[in-house]
What does this fold into?
Amino acid sequence: MKRFAFSILSLCLALQFLNAQVTDKEEKLRAQSADSVEGWKKGGAIFLNFSQTSLTNWAAGGVASYSINGLANFFGSYKKGKSYWDNTLDIGYGFLKQKDMDFQKTDDKLDFFSKYGRQAIKSWYYSALINFRTQFSNGYNYPDDSVISAFLSPAYLLGAVGLDYKPSDAFTAFIAPVTAKITIVNNQVLADAGAFGVDPGKNVRGEFGGYVRVVFKKTLVENINFTTKADFFSNYLHNPQNIDVNWEVLLAMKITKFIAATFSTQLLYDDDIAILEKLDNGTTHPVKSMVQFKEILGIGITAKF
It folds into this structure.
């Protein structure tokens, strides 16, 4: 886990190095833009991807299926004088339908983020943030119907106070030595099983520690946008050397005015989250913590505003 965390931190430093490779003219233009634009800046993008397979008397075999995956990103940023307030809302949902099988969920995400800062010196800001993450619907341990997640099961509420380094609109690194993290498991069956790190039978778990959030976004070439964000949390009171990681990447490629391709990944590691296994008696039992990884590739309709 130490090597893994070191590799992630090395990547973040590399992104900062790339961000620094701009000309003096570009730096001046950025400074002028930052100084001249105040007030609200709002927008967003919606992506809707489809895939479908239909087979009739197909000798080679196969299964008819279709899938839909939606992704939406919204933002609202406010700047005035030495103060700023950044807000983002990321929503994702997708499902797959194969022949006579029930719908199977392929993506489910609700992520709200809000950060306020006031300039301390140059590119450094005194800042505070809150982050709330959960999902919309039940998740199942396919092919059986045992529930392994649900709305507010889990849900994560994080609050942090620290310093934010913002040399440009493309890069930000938030460092918080004072952070509170709350894990909520509202589903009592999952809570009784001790899912997502809560003590068996309890619905809430609190943690206190340090937190780092790094965000880098850049237009690689015309119509190709790259965004990555990585969160690191260390619990001071329990195994501080085991760092929780949440690393997301989104690559959006505009093909035509209304057609785009998206490629997204998410890597999660939490030493307190054990993957659930269903036992022969029908109950679920946490086994061990593992690196979790999700990847979604799609081509479909897009709308920006």
User: Anything to note?
Assistant: The domain at 2-35+48-55+62-304 is CATH 2.40.230 (Outer membrane phospholipase (ompla); Chain C). Residues 24 and 30 are 10 Å apart (CA to CA). Confidence is low (pLDDT under 50) at residues 1-9, 21-35.
